[in-house]
Write a structure and sequence with these properties.
CATH superfamily of the largest domain: Enolpyruvate transferase domain
Distance between the termini: 11 Å
Structural class: alpha/beta
Radius of gyration: 21 Å
Strand content: 25-35%
Oligomer: single chain
Low-confidence stretches: none
Number of helices: 14
Strand order of the largest sheet: 22-23-1-24
Number of strands: 24
Bound molecules: uridine-diphosphate-2(N-acetylglucosaminyl) butyric acid
Mean pLDDT: 95
Helix content: 25-40%
C-alpha cells in the first residue's frame, strides 16, 4: 500500500491540465451497455475507479479497449450476463450505474446492493423507486437488487429526496427511460454537469432527452440506441482541488481544460476569501493572496457549492485569518478528514453537520491517514502548506479519483514522493 511523503512549504507555480471528469465518465461507460454498437469515449481518465468499471463491464459481456490515443472503446459482445457482483460494486459505488442500462436493454439486472461507505449510508431507494415507476419488478435476494421488466413504460417520476436530488439515481432512471415505451418526465432531477453530460451522450446515441441541466427531464422513449463518439467534460472537482492547491501553497497556477461555467460557486467562494481567479487563454489563472479571509460554506446540489470540495476547502480555511463555518447538506457525516486535519494542527470543531474552523497561521506536518477520496485530497493539500514532512498513508483512496496527483503537482513545483507504506512505518 502506497503513501505520499510531502515536503511542505513549496509554492506551486506553472501549469496543470485538468483531466476528463471521473463522475461523468463512470455513468457514461455504464450507459454504453444500452447499445449493441460501439461507443468511442474520449477524455476518460486512467483511474482506479475507471479500471473497476472496465472490469464490471467486461464481466457483463462488453469488450473494452483503451486505444493508443487514450480513447476508450466499449462494444457489447454478449448480452447473457446481467449480474454485477458484490466484489466489484463494493469497491466503487458507481457500479450501481449498470442497473438502469441492464434493465432497459436486457430486461433484467442483478446488482449487488452497495453498502455504506466512508462518507455515509448512501441509500439507493430513489433509484429503485424510479425504476419501479417505469414498471420494473424489484426484489432483494442475498444482498442483490434483482430487477426485471419485459419493456419499461414511460411515467412521471419525482426523484427528490430528503437531501435533494440524486446524481446517480437520475442517471439510472434516465438511462432506463431512453428505451421505455412512451414519455418519461423526471421531476427533481439532478442538474449536475455530469448528469447533463450523460444526457448529451445518450442523445448522441439517438436518445430523445430534453431539459438536461434543469430539475425537469423529459425523455421520449426510442426502440434502440446506436454507437457514437463522445468526449467527457473536464473534471470540475479536480479543477477545484488544484485551485485550492495553488491558494494553500501561496503559489500561482494556470489550469487548462477547465469549464468555468461549472465552477461558478467554487470560484465565487475563492474570491470571497481573497484568492485571485481569472479567466485566461484556454483556462484559468489562480493566485494566492497574502492574507486568506475566513468564509462560510454550505454544500448543496449543483449549482451550489459541491460536497466533493468540502474537505479541500476545510484545509484551506484552516489557514485563514479568522473563523469559518462549513455545513454539509448532502452527506451530513462526510467529516472523516476533520480528525486528521486536527493532527496537522488545524483547529476544527464539529457539531453535527457543521464544522467551525478556527484559522491558524500555520499547520505542522504529521503522519495522517486517508479515509476516502476527497478527504485524502484535503490531506495532500494540507501537507503542501504544513511545515515539515507530512506522510499521507493509504493513498489508494486518492488514486481512485486523481490520476498521478503527485506527478502533476510536482511538475508545478511540489515535492511529493510516493513510497511503499512499509518504508514509512
Ligand atoms: N440519496 C438518497 N436516496 C437515494 C440516493 C441518494 O437518500 O436513493 C441521498 C444521499 O444519501 C445523499 C444525497 O441523496 O444524501 C445525494 O446523493 P447522490 O445520489 O446525489 O450521490 P451519488 O449519486 O451516489 C455522486 C457522486 C459523488 C458526489 C455525489 C453528490 C459519482 C460516482 N459519485 O454520488 O461523488 O459526492 O454525487 O454530488 O458520481 C466523489 O467523487 O468523491 C463522490 C463521492
Amino acid at each position: 500500500m502506497d503513501s505520499l511523503v510531502i515536503q511542505g512549504g513549496m509554492k506551486l507555480r506553472g501549469s496543470i491540465a485538468v483531466n476528463g471528469a471521473k463522475n461523468a465518465a463512470l455513468p457514461i461507460m455504464a450507459a454504453a451497455l444500452l447499445s449493441d454498437e460501439p461507443s468511442l469515449i474520449r477524455g476518460v481518465p486512467d483511474l482506479q475507479d475507471v479500471r473497476s468499471q472496465i472490469a464490471l463491464l467486461t464481466g457483463l459481456g462488453a469488450a473494452v479497449l483503451r486505444q493508443k490515443d487514450g480513447a476508450l472503446e466499449i462494444r457489447v459482445r454478449d448480452q447473457s450476463q446481467s449480474h454485477a457482483p458484490y466484489d466489484l460494486v463494493r469497491k466503487m459505488r458507481a457500479g450501481i450505474c449498470v442497473l438502469g442500462p441492464l434493465l432497459a436493454r436486457r430486461g433484467r439486472a442483478r446488482v449487488s446492493m452497495p453498502g455504506g461507505c466512508a462518507i455515509g449510508d448512501r441509500p439507493v431507494d430513489l433509484h429503485l423507486r424510479g425504476l419501479a415507476a417505469l414498471g420494473a419488478r424489484i426484489r432483494l435476494a442475498n444482498g442483490d437488487i434483482v430487477a426485471t421488466a419485459k419493456r419499461l413504460r414511460g411515467a412521471e417520476i419525482f426523484l427528490g429526496g430528503n437531501f435533494g436530488s440524486t446524481v446517480l439515481g437520475t442517471a439510472n432512471v434516465m438511462c432506463a427511460a431512453t428505451l421505455a415505451r412512451g414519455q418519461t418526465v423526471i421531476e427533481g432531477a439532478a442538474c449536475e454537469p455530469e448528469t447533463v453530460d450523460l444526457a448529451n451522450y445518450l442523445n448522441a446515441m439517438g436518445a430523445r432527452i430534453t431539459g438536461q441541466g434543469t430539475p425537469r427531464l423529459i425523455i421520449e422513449g426510442v426502440r434502440e440506441l446506436h454507437g457514437c463518439e463522445y468526449r467527457v467534460i473536464p473534471d470540475r472537482i479536480e479543477a477545484g482541488t488544484f485551485l485550492v492547491a495553488a491558494a494553500i501553497s501561496r503559489g500561482e497556477l494556470r489550469l487548462q481544460n477547465v469549464r468555468l461555467d461549472h465552477l461558478v460557486a467554487v470560484i465565487d467562494k475563492l474570491r470571497q476569501i481573497g484568492v485571485r481567479v481569472e479567466k485566461c487563454n484556454g483556462g484559468v489563472h489562480v493566485a494566492a493572496p497574502q492574507r486568506l479571509q475566513p468564509g462560510t460554506i454550505t454544500t448543496q446540489p449543483y449549482p451550489g457549492f459541491p460536497t466533493d470540495l468540502q474537505a479541500q476547502f476545510m484545509a484551506l480555511l484552516a489557514l485563514a485569518h479568522g473563523n469559518s463555518i462549513i455545513t454539509e447538506k448532502i452527506f451530513p457525516d462526510r467529516f472523516l478528514h476533520v480528525a486528521e486535519l486536527a493532527r496537522l494542527g488545524a483547529r476544527v470543531h464539529r457539531e453535527g453537520a457543521t464544522v467551525m474552523v478556527e484559522g491558524q497561521p500555520k499547520l505542522i506536518a504529521a503522519p495522517v491517514m486517508a479515509s476516502d477520496l476527497r478527504a485524502s485530497a484535503a490531506l495532500v493539500l494540507a501537507g503542501l502548506a504544513a511545515q515539515g514532512v507530512t506522510v499521507v498513508h493509504r493513498v489508494y483512496h486518492i488514486d481512485r479519483g486523481y490520476e498521478r496527483i503527485e506527478k502533476r503537482l510536482n511538475q508545478a513545483g511540489a515535492r511529493i514522493q510516493r513510497v511503499d507504506q512499509a518504508e514509512t512505518e
